[in-house]
Structures are given as C-alpha cells and as structure tokens.
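Weekly modeling sync, notes
Attendees: AB, CL, MP (scribe)

Item 1: holo prediction request
CL wants a bound-state model with S-adenosylmethionine before deciding which constructs to order. AB pointed out that an apo prediction alone won't tell us much about the pocket. Agreed to run with the ligand included and paste results into these notes for async review.

Input as submitted:
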Amino acid sequence: MRPLVNHENEMVRTVIYKEYFAKEKTQKNTLPHAETYDFLKNVVINADVLEALKYVPDESVHLTFTSPPYYNARDYSIYPSYQAYLEFLDKVFQETHRITKEGRFLIVNTSPIIIPRVSRSHSSKRYGIPFDLHPYLVKNGWEFIDDIVWLKPEASVKNRIGGFMQHRKPLGYKPNSVTEYLMVYRKSTEKLLDWNMRSYDYQTVEDSKVADGYETSNVWKIDPCFDKVHSAIFPVELCKRVIQYYSYKGDLIFDPFGGSGTVGRTAKALDRLFFLTEQESKYFVYMQSKVKSLSQSVFKEHKTQFLTLEQFKEKSK
Ligand SMILES: C[S@@+](CC[C@H](N)C(=O)[O-])C[C@H]1O[C@@H](n2cnc3c(N)ncnc32)[C@H](O)[C@@H]1O
C-alpha cells in the first residue's frame, strides 16, 4: 500500500500518508498544545509584521483573525503593483502558518475592492482579493475549511447602482456590494479536530463552550463599524463570533494587521490572550489610548505591553 502515497487522487494520498507515514514524522520539541510563550502574551508591537515575526517561535499562536490592508484602496496601503501586494500577503501568511499550532485556524477578512478610474475616459478596476489570495494560502499548507459571508445593511455601503438606476442599460449593471468574506483555513494536519479539543482540560472546555443564540448559517448579518481615527475597523460582534467559535479560553489570538486593536480588546474581554502587530505609529498610539479605558484582563500577570521592535527583540531572547 505504501507506494500509493504517490497516487494521483489527493484523498487516496492523504489516507495512505496518515496510515503509513505520519507517525514516522519526528515530533518537534514544542510547548503543550494549550500553552504558549509568556513573552507573547498581551503584547502589541509597533513594527512591520514580517520584521516582528522573525522573533516569534514556531507553533506559538492558537488563532489568527485579521483584515489585511485593502491593496491601494485606502491611504495606508501603498504597494508597487497588485502582484507585489499578493506576494506580500503570501509571505505574511507563510510566516503565520509557521507560528500557528498544529491544526489551528486562520480567518482572513477580505472583499473585492475597486480602484477608482483616473478620468472619465478610463475604467475603474476591480480586484478579487479573496479569490486571488486563496491559491497562495492553499499552496502554503492552509487547508480551506469554510467561506463565511459578512452581510451589511445596504444603506451602510457605497452606492454603485445609481448610474444604472438612471439608464437601465444591460452591461452597465453595478450592484451595491453588501458583503465581505471571512475565509476560514486550518493549518494542514492529519490529526482530527478531536485531537485539538482533547488538548484542553475539562474545565477549560466547559468554560469555553459557546452559549445559546450562536449563528447557525454562513451568512452573518452584522452592522459595520465606523471610527473617527481608523477607516476600516472590525465590528466587535464580528470579532466576538470568530474568537468564540474558533478558540478556547486562555488561547493566544494573533492579528498581524492590528489597526485600532479590536481583536486584542475582544480577546481580552473573552478571557483569551492576544498578540498584535501594527506598523503605523498613529494607530499604535490610538490603540494605547483605547486600552487605558478598559478593565483588567483575567490574566492579571500579563498586563498589556506596547513595544517597539527593539524592545520585543530583547524580550524574545
Ligand atoms: C484593515 S486595517 C485592520 C483594522 C483592524 N482589523 C481593526 O479592527 O482596527 C489594516 C491595518 O494593517 C496595517 N498594516 C499595513 N501593513 C502592515 C505591515 N506590513 N505590518 C503591520 N501592519 C500593517 C495598517 O496600518 C492598518 O492599520
């Protein structure tokens, strides 16, 4: 049966690998599954994510939830080309894969974006970010699990249908975009989810169980959130659902594109730990101002720390 590990069908290859080869893989010397390193707990770093991740050990985070920059659609995201942008995200999610614990999840919030036309004699250009990013993630060992659609009220989004309402000419139809994607991936492993769940003690599992009233479909109706300082923040409700459905209490939640810190604050409120990176100083400072008004985490020994790259480098030694 062992030669079937090279079979053309991927399902056959996976079964043969699990039965005959997986156990032969040498186990890396890592921390117990439910634990992580103290120097990463409740830490925010003001740096480029790729620089910061150089100091993060393999298999240290339990969940990543993030919304990457929207290519060049907003002021803070300037890339030389769309290809360069995708390759940057490819590197970030390769590194995220390295630091993610076996069989744990990555949830990426993106949507197609539009770059406005330069003048009336040119067209605007639409980029299908979720679809273009997906092949990179799968190639790098992220197994596709689910596509969740975040549905917003039509009144809250930009009006694109106005022109068509006037002329009604086919081909000129431009629907209002009321959705974004939450693409759900799992770090590929031959281990079942049950293995991950059994890594937690009885009390943690009981305390982490999702309460009644949870979402049952993959369409989540949630109002967007507007902020005076940051132009693209997560609604707390969106963060709450992702963190509750995809992590256990005490887990370390990572957001490589921290922004205003919504993932960190929500993780803290749900008795999880967080680790964020944010390169723009103005958002880093904004995050600090927001944390001051918050109650203490249940993890009193892990006070929130805002660090420069140099300070983080020192702590990682
Ligand atoms: C879409 S926003 C995230 C907003 C966040 N989800 C929130 O709730 O506030 C993306 C963020 O990524 C940051 N960013 C862009 N490139 C980065 C990089 N290379 N390293 C770290 N942060 C980066 C931007 O400054 C921006 O704040």
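Recorded for review: The first strand starts at residue 43 and ends at 46.
Action items: CL to compare against the apo run; MP to circulate these notes.
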